[in-house]
Fold:
Amino acid sequence: MIIVLSLLIIGILANYSGLIAEKLKLPSLIGMMIVGMLIGPSYLNLVPQGTLEISSTIKDVALVTVLFIGGLGISLDQIKQIGRPAVLLSVVPATLEGFVIAFLSMKFLGFTFIQGAILGFIIAAVSPAVLIPSMISLIDRKVGQDKAIPQMLLVGASADDTIAITLFTTFLGVYLQNQKGESISIVSQLISIPISIFASILVAFLLFKISEFALRKVKNDYIKVVVVFIISLMMRYAEKTTHTQYLNSLLAVMIYGFFIRNYMKESAQFILDKMNNIWKYGKLYLFSFVGMAINPTLVGEYIYVGLFMLTISLSFRSVGVLLALTGTNLNLKERIFCVIAYLPKATVQSAKSSIPLQMGVAGGEIMQAIAILSVLVTAPLGAIGIKLTSDKLLNRKEDKYFDEVMKYS
Structure:
């Protein structure tokens, strides 16, 4: 009962803090994250331990919901249009930023290259919690649809985390093995990245074919929603429990939603509507729990060197985004928007920042401090930037394909 009551209060506080943020012309998620920080362990410590222990599960449910909605917003025609730049967006910005931070860490923090790369690839991941809801909002408002820009960023960001987390795990493994006098194959770790992406797409396709066969026999649309949502959650649960590096469940969930949107057109709109209803409540807990995981007090004496390093690394990340968009039909304004949208960090950094310290990596406390600083700087910067610039830098155009699809619901 204490957990249930605390969740109810957290939901109410997050809702009103989001409304206050909107009154101040800020994204609602900023208000939700701030209230999470205030009531969480870092400051007032008002949240029961039991609630904190299940917060990871609740965040996963919310992330699965919003990524599934994201997949439902991508058409087959758009995938053909955004394929190459989406792939490059998943690889180039994160890789470039991660290695830049690695070299900066050697210069300004006295780290070895391996230590710097561990920090670099904690920071390098874009935040799905911030970027994906913002892109779904743009899809709903038909902003950037003429060139499928939100869809391109959705796909790129979902695979971006695979790159960053795999490289973080790889360099952490190299460090720990070196401490034991053992060796680890970096090549085999890097090969796992394309395998993971391919495996995620294959898993999504197979689960779609199985569920499609079953759901065509079901007349009740509510049952269809329950089934596809459970399948999506199962993918996330499988990755979390097996700890496999060969499945990116968040990418798989999005691809699963994509298959439903394009090959179960008669049910897609109803499923989308009900998932949107779930997301209305899920976002309250996603952003408030993300806020609770942020501890600004850890930043301490590393704030200035951290800000300097982040300024340089984000500049290189922005160059990486522009390189990934080379050869596309995006104009300068649209490219600038993509740079802004790829700035925010939150989810991965909150989850991974304490791992080096826990694993006994030298300088782990510095890594945690700078990773948390990256969230404090880029999450509001990216979220506010997306909100303020989307209507100014992107075109508003009806997605005729989606409208045609949804007429049959």
